[in-house]
């Protein structure tokens, strides 16, 4: 059935009265730019043990099904020692533990991988693979073990947490042997083909007090850990260094130099094995006070994170023998701390977080193309907390088994196709402008990321309307022209997915219910349905005119559309 253009105009959500700006988007299905890297399938958290809890398992099942590409999970504290004196251990903010390593009275190692097995089992049972962080230091192996554990309330000073787990080992040989025994155990439990598909990285942000040692001592930690991994599984993928702040000054460059020509403290050979390179990038939101023209509000800053990425890519590109390796932004977030209290609950619960994510990830893919580096993953550092209030002010993906809008951006990414297409938007901010200033001007960033299947039978286009300021704005009128599509075919189907105030948004539904902290089961079931990815309207047929079709729709501020045409 042919849908007249006027009907399509209305079905796609355009309302002329509310649109104050028109943006034209053009996509050519015949102009393939290359592979679209499936970067949005990596997640992580400080707290490993929540993966084994009911809400954690439920969320893992959703993460494992965000797309056809494999999902991975990275977590701190996989080797941290439990605190038997704490009634809340191990489930508390920024903490987790496994008791993987202790020693007997004579200092002989005792290995116990029961808890790490439970964590990895929870991943694998839900279609998620480990991106294994080798850390932190077990108490019996720490050179400065006291104090060891800590309690974090979301507002404590950062230095309060860098206790005995962040220190050097009493013996690098014992450290390497622990890693060997762990990997050997995983191979015996899960098999070589499975463990070969994991990533093994050493520590976290060693350029800040997560590592209470020197840079050279981190290189020793890395050498012995990697040697332990490869002794147990020579085909394992190893890497790092997960530095904070992009290149971390000269840290990333000196680390890469060490892997090429430094003296390996574990083998006495030259260099150290590396199969992937990782670093972290974070945005820096602020709270803006009210003025005569605007109310007080949260203001995001994407430029900070993109500058981290730009700096790290520049360093990686300078290493001719390494710049082909997979690159991971091992923590890639709008702000620094998932377990820290946010000044704006709405940011972490509502629409800014998902719209920021798609706008930032697209620019990171653009930067990877500019530098010709192999960006493989952009890891979102957010999970969930069991037994916490509904829609609290921590950075999580779900709340009491209700998915937040942010999770639907990953479902959208999961529907993107293998090949990236040329796409242009008159409303999209230039890469270098966003890199310098973020999106703080008068106009919002109305951008597009377009893709096609390798078989040529499906197109998927993401369109967003992002601005740093958490302020209301009129809808934008989007006019999208698709050309060279499905040549020789007359009819196709459009499925239009949407994240906005009334679609794919359990937070809005919760607010409409009066923000209950004791919702009924019926209300919970309704919010769970609202938290899934939803369509703006039922799928509709489109009529192609020599491979051309025009689609128009309204796009509210901080909303995201995914158009799948097949």
TrEMBL record:
InterPro entries: GH, GH39_cat, Glyco_hydro_39, Glycosyl_Hydrolase_39. Keywords: Glycosidase, Hydrolase, Signal. One of its GO terms (biological process) is carbohydrate metabolic process. The active site is at 205 (proton donor). GO terms for molecular function: hydrolase activity, hydrolyzing O-glycosyl compounds. Residues 1-20 form the signal peptide. Belongs to the glycosyl hydrolase 39 family. This is Glycosyl hydrolase, family 39. It comes from Mycena belliarum.
């Amino acid at each position: 059935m042919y849908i007249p253009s006027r009907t399509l105009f209305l079905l796609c959500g355009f309302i002329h009265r509310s649109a104050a700006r028109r943006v034209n988007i053009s996509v050519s299905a015949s102009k393939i730019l290359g592979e679209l890297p499936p970067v949005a399938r990596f997640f992580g958290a400080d707290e490993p043990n929540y993966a084994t809890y009911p809400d954690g398992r439920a969320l893992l099942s959703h993460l494992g099904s965000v797309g056809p590409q494999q999902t991975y999970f990275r977590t701190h504290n996989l080797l941290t020692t439990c605190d038997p004196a704490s009634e809340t251990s191990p489930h508390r903010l920024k903490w987790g533990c496994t008791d993987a390593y202790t020693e007997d009275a004579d200092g002989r190692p005792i290995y116990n991988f029961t808890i790490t097995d439970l964590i990895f089992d929870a991943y694998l049972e839900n279609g998620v693979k480990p991106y294994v962080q080798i850390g932190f230091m077990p108490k019996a192996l720490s050179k400065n073990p006291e104090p060891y554990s800590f309690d974090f309330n979301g507002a404590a000073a950062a230095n309060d947490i860098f206790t005995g787990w962040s220190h050097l080992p009493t013996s690098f040989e014992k450290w390497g042997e622990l890693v060997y025994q762990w990997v050997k155990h995983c191979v015996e439990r899960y098999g070589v083909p499975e463990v070969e598909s994991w990533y093994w990285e050493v520590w976290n942000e060693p350029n800040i007090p997560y590592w209470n040692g020197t840079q050279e001592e981190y290189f020793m930690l890395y050498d012995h850990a990697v040697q332990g991994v490869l002794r147990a599984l020579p085909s394992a993928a190893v890497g790092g260094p997960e530095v904070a702040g992009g290149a971390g000054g000269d840290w990333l460059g000196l680390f890469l130099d060490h892997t090429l020509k430094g003296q390996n403290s574990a083998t006495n050979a030259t260099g150290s094995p590396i199969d992937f390179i990782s670093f972290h990038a974070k945005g820096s939101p602020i709270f803006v006070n009210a003025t005569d023209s605007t109310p007080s509000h949260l203001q995001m800053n994407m430029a900070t994170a993109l500058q981290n990425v730009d700096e790290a890519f520049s360093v990686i590109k300078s290493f001719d023998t390494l710049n082909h390796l997979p690159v991971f932004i091992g923590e890639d977030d709008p702000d620094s701390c998932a377990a820290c209290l946010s000044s704006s609950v709405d940011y972490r619960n509502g629409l800014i977080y998902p719209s920021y994510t798609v706008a930032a990830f697209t620019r990171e893919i653009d930067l990877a193309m500019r530098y010709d580096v192999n960006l493989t993953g952009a890891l979102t550092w957010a999970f969930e907390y069991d037994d916490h209030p509904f829609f609290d002010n921590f950075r999580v993906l779900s709340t009491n088994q209700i998915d937040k809008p942010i999770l639907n951006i990953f479902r959208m990414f999961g529907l993107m196709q293998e090949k990236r297409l040329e796409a242009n938007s008159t409303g999209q901010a230039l890469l270098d402008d966003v890199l310098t200033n973020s999106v703080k001007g008068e106009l919002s960033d109305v951008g597009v990321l377009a893709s096609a299947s390798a078989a040529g039978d499906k197109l998927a286009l993401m369109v967003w309307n992002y601005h740093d300021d958490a302020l209301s704005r009129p809808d934008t009128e989007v006019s999208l022209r698709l050309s060279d599509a499905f040549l020789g075919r007359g009819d196709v189907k459009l499925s239009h997915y949407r994240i906005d105030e009334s679609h794919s948004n359990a937070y809005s539904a919760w607010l409409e219910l009066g923000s209950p902290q004791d919702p009924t089961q019926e209300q919970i079931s309704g919010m769970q349905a609202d938290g899934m990815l939803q369509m703006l309207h039922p799928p509709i047929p489109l009529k192609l005119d020599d491979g051309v079709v025009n689609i128009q729709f309204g796009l509210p501020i901080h909303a995201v559309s995914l158009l799948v045409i097949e």
